[in-house]
Amino acid sequence: MNKLIALAVLLAAPSFAADKPVKLAVSVTDDPLFKVSFRIKAEDLSEAGSFVIQSGTEADYHVGGEDPLQIDKAVEFKKHNTSVSCIPVTNPTNGLIHAECQFEISGYRRPVGDIKEPPTISFQLKTAFDVRPGKTLLLVDDETRRVEVKIEELKP
Known about the structure:
By secondary structure, this protein is mainly beta. The protein contains one helix and eight strands, in the order H-E-E-E-E-E-E-E-E.
């Protein structure tokens, strides 16, 4: 009986008590897990993030909200949003990761001068690519827009 209680205490103890990292995701199949990291920029807007996904499945990452903006005497709420969808798959013949991803960022520019309502910005990219695990791929790089993505295979 004492062994059972000790096992229950060990299972319930937080992992930091043993100075071991906490596993954030565990695959229940043989398909590998990937960490997808991204950085997206369009004019004044930028966002970076990451998420874990299993090979061959789709993950959607969304962050955003509404900001109050005074227009004349009224207050309007303007939406801002960053959205990333991705489906990575390991290619066993060449070791590359094939991914189909969609990136979107939208919001409004900072007001300049006496503009009563700042213009909105919206940028979308839908693409497919092959990348070596752990390498950062620059998908868009121009004066006002930038999209980069890195896909790492997580080892068990």
